[in-house]
Amino acid sequence: MPPTPNATRALVLPLALLLIPVAVPRAAAAGAGWSLAPAGDGRPSFYAEGAPGAVVRDTVAVTNGGARPVTVTLAADGVRASFADVLVRVPGRTRAEVPFTVRVPGDRSGAIVARDAAGRVRSVPLRLRAGVPDLSALTVEHVRVRADRITYDLVNRGTTTLVPRLAVRADGLFRRVLDRAPRALPVRLAPGTRASLTEPWPGRPALDAVDVRLTVTAPDGTRATVGASARPTPQAASAALAGAALAAAGTALALARRRGRRPPGGPGPAGDAGATTGAAA
């Protein structure tokens, strides 16, 4: 069941039932029934590969080994298929070959099924596989710089499972305040999945305006870089000013107490020198 070069072309291919006489010994014809199988080379089942959404084409054969005609209804189980004829009448000792198309939704297992008027059912397994190229693609989203951490979302937008690496850099107004070399993250991202992650940052300078840059790299070198900024909040500035004022007040109080511990009326260095000179005279 090879994939068609062009999905649109496969949809308009002429679908026609083909009746082929089969050789069945007359002695066996009376007790022979009907069977269902892939047309052609004796395959036990149907198998097809294609890109997701591609349309593939194959043919199912209904063989009537008996002498009397048989009528069967064709259907698909587990997949969506379109048949050239759904209701197929097969004369005695004849094989009917019915083309059909099926769209590849992804990796899927199903069956082509036939049922006769007496309720007898025959089926052939059908396996579809979505053949997609390996592609690494990732994005970093929703980056937030918080008081003691950086939060972000990592999204795998490719077709392969990723174990990404993260590098973090942050620059303040006058210097670099954070520089972390690339390291493997403790996550395995399957295709199409998202992970919310946290990068600890204890001791982040609350009064400095910082620009943060996250760089995430896939094993094949594919990378995504995103930035975020953080500015001092009024609350942080007020708290810092209050802290500075308290520190200044504490220093002034300590100096005042130190001066207050001197003996009252004690001569200073100049007075001591004058008294000594007078005594000598």
Descriptive report:
The protein is an alpha+beta fold. The chain has two domains: 7-130, Immunoglobulin-like (Sandwich); 138-230, Sandwich (Immunoglobulin-like), CATH 2.60.40.10. It is 17% helix and 44% strand. The strands form four sheets. Strands 1, 2, 4, 6 and 8 form a five-stranded antiparallel β-sheet that branches. A five-stranded mixed β-sheet has the order 3-10-9-5-7, with no helix packed on it. Strands 14-13-16-17 form a four-stranded antiparallel β-sheet, with no helix packed on it. A hairpin with a 3-residue loop joins strand 11 (138-145) and strand 12 (149-156). The radius of gyration is 42 Å and the shape is rod-shaped. Mean pLDDT is 82; it is low at 2-14, 25-31 and 268-281.
Share in helix: 10-25%
The CATH top-level class label of the largest domain:
Mainly Beta
CATH topology of the largest domain: Immunoglobulin-like
> Pairing-aware structural class of the strands and helices?
alpha+beta
Averaged pLDDT = 82
| Number of DSSP strand runs | 17
CATH superfamily of the largest domain: Immunoglobulins
Q: What is the CA–CA distance across the termini?
A: 129 Å
Count of the separate structural domains:
2
